[in-house]
């Protein structure tokens, strides 16, 4: 008979939290495949040494595990330091506060107040068939993409967004990144999705937006220069030809 107590539940929750935070860290640095590879190696190690009790193979895997952790610390020392600093700050337990604190009307109104200028700018750009690519940061930082563009750190305004994506503007190529309710940068380079199921008529903006949504949880607005239609990429999906109201709802919702 298996005894399952409160300590076992806490143990499972702590392991799940550690794996989740590690996964977010790997997504931030673009090394998700390494994380999945490490998990697969650990799973094989547990099967060999604990389940099948293969002593020779278990001993070999033990050596690889001990050396592997040292190599991971050396390779990802910067990312690990940022991860530990985040845990030690108020942000480290922010997700718990979000779970315990229900959203009230003031929070929703605040979100709408900074999202509305973005929606209005997208509408105006769509009417003039001026292409645009606007990535809005969620929980995963977009710092490595911000560094590829021109740093602005400006207040959000529809007029500024429209001027940046004006055809003759030097910053109209590339993506605008918004985070912390500010325009962080423009003319940023985003990862291009290699998904073969994307319709052929969709261009580089749509592929870049989908690529970012596959690596992060950002919400990316696309305004087509050819058709003037507005689309949104989020969680690895493309929502094509959406209205302004639909765009606002998707940006406000979690």
Shape: elongated
Q: Report strand %.
A: 5-15%
Count of strand segments: 7
Low-pLDDT residue intervals, each spanning 5 or more residues: 89-96
Class based on secondary structure composition and strand pairing = alpha+beta
| Helix proportion range | 40-55%
Biggest sheet, open or closed, and with what strands and sense? 7 strands, mixed
Average of per-residue pLDDT values: 81
Strand order of the biggest β-sheet = 2-4-3-1-5-6-7
Q: What's the helix count?
A: 10
Gap from first CA to last CA: 42 Å
Assembly status? single chain
Secondary-structure element order, as H and E?
Answer: HHHHHHEHEHEEHEEEH
Rg = 22 Å
Which properties best describe this structure?
254 residues, elongated, 7-stranded mixed sheet, alpha+beta, 7 strands
Task: Give the helix/strand layout.
Layout lengths: L5 H24 L2 H20 L3 H21 L1 H12 L5 H7 L4 H23 L4 E5 L6 H4 L3 E6 L2 H7 L10 E5 L2 E7 L15 H12 L3 E5 L6 E5 L2 E3 L4 H9 L2
Parallel strand pairs: 1-3
Antiparallel strand pairs: 1-5, 2-4, 3-4, 5-6, 6-7
What do you see in this structure?
With 254 residues, this protein is of the alpha+beta class. The radius of gyration is 22 Å and the shape is elongated. A seven-stranded mixed beta sheet has the order 2-4-3-1-5-6-7, sandwiched between helices. Helix content is 55%, strand content 14%. Helix 2 runs antiparallel to helix 3 (55-75). Strand 6 (230-234) and strand 7 (237-239) form a beta hairpin. It has helices at 6-29, 32-51, 55-75, 77-88, 94-100, 105-127, 143-146, 158-164, 204-215, 244-252; strands spanning 132-136, 150-155, 175-179, 182-188, 219-223, 230-234, 237-239.
